[in-house]
TrEMBL record:
It is found in: Cytoplasm. Substrate binds at R90. The keyword GTP-binding does not apply. Homodimer. CDD domains: ASKHA_NBD_AcK_PK. Belongs to the acetokinase family. Catalyzes the formation of acetyl phosphate from acetate and ATP. Can also catalyze the reverse reaction. Keywords: ATP-binding, Cytoplasm, Kinase, Magnesium, Metal-binding, Nucleotide-binding, Transferase. This is Acetate kinase. It comes from Dokdonia ponticola.
């Protein structure tokens, strides 16, 4: 069974074609910088590789380019669109409506649209990817895997905010949690690698969006993102935790509109607001050059992560392993070092030489004396989506 997995983001479309149940990746790629002049498609299969810079102006053009390369007579991997049996979609926000993987119908699409206001950088593009895939792959079953589903196990003590109960009961204002597909995948890999039947794990997903999850025996019990994917850690352009009174001050005293504040906190803050750069590679280059803004931003980033590590150790009453994952978590040895330094009191000791080793595989980077295991596990949300979609339709 061929499953095409589409992860449609705000300016990108990641995709993998996976044969199930063998989990064989037939091809994979990404359309990046959609809407920009340097928009490009990268595609790789066992026998070919394609790089195109066609300046894809819209997601529709980007997804059409994916279909074109899949069907290409020389470098493609399918003969016709009906060779795709299932299209699996990552959807960021499913609220309380979806606690598991779901076959997409009109009601599901309406719910995804309803939650768009809670994930404005994600759900609209997730929905657009679904609508385009329905048009381009009319014979395929469309399946949604929700980032929020993994966090449905968070208990009320961590799920509720200290606001009037009616806002929870009538309007579902609560902690939902995100990046659930990634946290589920890497935590299960960690348990398997460490041969743990019972476990206390902190999963740290660091990309343009960042989050941490406290996971006990494979179940999410607390998470750094909340009602929307904007709280918690310092992110690429999102502020993370902030005193909410700052919003009132900006509106009432500084004259900002609410729309301006929302845009500032989601698109102009975080590492971008602190340094002028949104790409961590540029920020780390700034650190090497002695840029004081970049140095302080990295220190703030690591400090925020450390605070969550301490709180999650307390919440779980212990810790077996820390997992770093996603683009920054997997590739930034500098940030991993900064996070794990001076945590010896918790039994967390990083091995400097193991930490700087370059690898795309699961690896341990803790010192021999470390009581807590420190792992770097490449996330594979696309494979996790394919597995869940396959299991749903069996």
């Amino acid at each position: 069974m061929n499953i095409l997995v589409i992860n449609s983001g705000s300016s990108s479309i990641k995709f993998q074609l996976i044969e199930m149940p063998s989990e064989n990746v037939i091809c994979k790629g990404i359309v990046e910088q959609i809407g920009a002049e340097n928009a490009r498609l990268s595609y790789k299969s066992a026998h070919s590789e394609v790089k195109k810079t066609d300046g894809f102006a819209t997601h529709k053009e980007g997804l059409q380019s994916v279909v074109d390369v899949l069907l290409d007579r020389e470098k493609g991997v399918i003969q016709q669109v009906s060779d795709i049996h299932i299209v699996g979609h990552r959807v960021v926000h499913g609220g309380n409506s979806f606690s598991s993987t779901t076959e997409i119908n009109a009601d599901v699409k309406a719910k995804i649209a309803q939650y768009a206001s809670l994930a404005p950088l994600h759900n609209p593009h997730n929905l657009q990817g679904i609508l385009l895939a329905e048009h381009l792959f009319p014979d395929a079953t469309q399946v949604a895997v929700f980032d929020t589903a993994f966090h449905q196990t968070i208990p009320l003590v961590a799920q509720k905010y200290a606001i009037p109960n009616t806002l929870f009961s009538e309007h579902e204002i609560q902690v939902y949690g995100f990046h659930g597909t990634s946290h589920k995948y890497v935590s299960e890999k960690a348990m398997e690698y460490l041969h743990l039947d019972t476990s206390k794990i902190i999963s740290i997903h660091l990309g343009n969006g960042c989050s941490m999850t406290a996971i006990v025996n494979g179940k999410s019990i607390d998470h750094s993102l909340g009602f929307t994917p904007s709280t918690g850690l310092i992110m690429g352009s999102r502020s993370g935790d902030i005193d909410h009174s700052i919003i009132f001050y900006m509106v009432n005293t500084l004259g900002y509109s609410l729309a301006d504040v929302e845009n500032l906190l989601n698109k102009e803050s975080g590492m971008l607001g602190l340094t002028g750069f949104s790409d961590l590679r540029d920020i780390q280059a700034g650190v090497e050059k002695g840029n004081t803004d970049c140095i302080l931003a990295m220190e703030m980033n690591a400090y925020r992560i450390k605070k969550y590590i301490g709180s999650y150790i307390a919440a779980m009453n212990g810790l077996d392993a820390i997992v770093f994952t996603a683009g920054i978590g997997e590739n930034s040895s500098l940030l991993r070092k900064m996070v794990c330094t001076n945590l010896e009191t918790f039994g967390i000791i990083i091995d400097p030489s193991k930490n700087v080793e370059s690898s795309q595989e699961l690896r341990a980077i803790h010192a021999d004396a470390s009581q807590v295991k420190i792992l770097v596990i490449p996330t594979n949300e696309e494979l996790e989506i394919a597995k869940q979609a396959y299991q749903l339709l069996q």
